[in-house]
């Protein structure tokens, strides 16, 4: 059985990479005026562990940086992701 810490780290990394890719894809679609990824989807991915990827995606692609909900929400979700991971590691694993 793999180490639970490794599984938790892998999960958070995977979710962050997925959200980072979604942010890049949404930015490309915005430039082309194509169908967009719903903001709700981006926030759900952040809430499910991809907060770090969301923050990096905002910075790397300069995407959603003028939206207060994203400028405040993504960093808060990232901190929440880290807090939950810490609590899981500290008390459950």
Number of strands: 0
> What integer value in Å does the Rg equal?
14 Å
N→C terminal distance? 13 Å
Number of domains: 1
Helix percent reads: over 70%
Largest sheet, if any?
Answer: none
Mean pLDDT: 96
Given as residue ranges, the uncertain stretches (5+ residues, pLDDT < 50) are none
Q: What is the number of helices? A: 3
Give the oligomer, counting copies of the same chain as homo and different chains as hetero. single chain
Please report which band the strand proportion falls in: under 5%, 5-15%, 15-25%, 25-35%, 35-45% or over 45%: under 5%
Helix-strand pattern: HHH
Structural class: mainly alpha
Shape: elongated
Topology:
Layout: H1 4-31, H2 39-61, H3 68-92
Helix pairs in contact: 1-2, 2-3
Fold and architecture overview:
The protein is mainly alpha-helical and 93 residues long. The chain has one domain. 82% of the residues lie in helices and 0% in strands. It is built from three helices and no strands. It has helices spanning 4-31, 39-61, 68-92. Helix 1 packs across helix 2 (39-61) and helix 2 crosses helix 3. It is elongated and about 45 Å long. It starts with a helix and ends with a helix. The model has no long low-confidence stretch (mean pLDDT 96).
């Amino acid at each position: 059985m793999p180490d639970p810490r490794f599984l938790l780290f892998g999960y958070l990394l995977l979710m962050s990479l997925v959200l980072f890719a979604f942010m890049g894809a949404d930015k490309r679609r915005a430039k082309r005026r194509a169908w967009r990824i719903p903001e709700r989807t981006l926030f759900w991915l952040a809430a499910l562990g991809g907060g770090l990827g969301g923050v990096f995606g905002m910075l790397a692609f300069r995407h959603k940086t003028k939206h207060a909900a994203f400028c405040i929400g993504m960093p808060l979700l990232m901190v929440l992701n880290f807090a939950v991971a810490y609590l899981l590691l500290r008390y459950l694993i």
